[in-house]
Amino acid sequence: MSKKATLRDVAERAGVGLATVDRVLNERGETSAATTAKVIEAAKAVGLRRVLPEPHRAIRRLRFIVPPPNSPFRQRLNDSLRALRQRGGSSVLVSLSHADPMDAQAIAAELAKNTDDAVAFCRWGQGDAVMQAAVSGLRAKRQAAYSLLNAPEGLSCDGFFGMDNQAAGRTVAALAKGRLQEYRDVMVLSPMRDTPLQDGTDPNARQHGFAEAMARYLPGSRIVAVDGTRNDPERVFALASQAFAANPNIGMVYNLGSGNPGLRAVLMAQRERRPVFAVAHELSETTEQMLRERLLDFVINQQVEATLARAVEVMLTGSNGVPQPGNGLHYIPFAVHCIENLPSRL
Hints:
alpha/beta; 434 Repressor (Amino-terminal Domain); Rossmann fold; 3 domains; six-stranded parallel beta sheet; 12 helices
């Protein structure tokens, strides 16, 4: 594995001191145009992985293809992208377009007409021939392609930005350690095996991580699988109510998907009999309310802003001509919220 380039490598290549390299790369001034150009060329030559100073960077065009803002999570994603576009500056142009993340043909059509330096897209579900052909077409034009929020199995692209969902599932099991005493079964609510979540991730990855960690943190507990919620509040309410009626030993609920208004109604009714330990995903008005009402104990929240910031950083570095490793997994840490650490902005 090649050594990561350092500022000292740049200084040696350019024949200048470290202080001069620092002044040039951090735009502190007091260097001639010739010295500045020499340092920039040296940084490119040694493969220094950072965004170059503004005056020496050509305009970079980045494109994001995301779902329309028709759910709280998707609205948050779109709002974050619009804010990012406004902060881009004169040398970074961020464009935004919409496509149904379940529609491979629609995403492929957007990719086919791309003219930007790099593009990140949301594709829920698995990779397929249509998507792979579209990504290969971008590579033939020397345009980088990245998967955002979901890493479709079987799709070869330049990288992935999002949370590690198996780690999220394992974290939920760890949070439940010691909390299930008399009632030890765990209701796990899932959309369906072939239905991705509203945020694009595979519910099976979360469930697999949770099941893997149960032996360590919840010995003696078993999963009561409730599939088919389709992220619909009414179905969540109906199916979870049925599961509680049929399984008196349920002491915990873990919702892999959305439809949390339905879960709130179920937990309100259940609390009249006995409370249960409950965890959901994605902080929203509904899940924040449930935390304040102590219907939820924890919410696992995907860090959308940090994910997009990392995506832009890598996309810009790649478009500066620095080689990037193929299929790089850029896992962004997720946040764990409880009633004690709710963001003041919500």
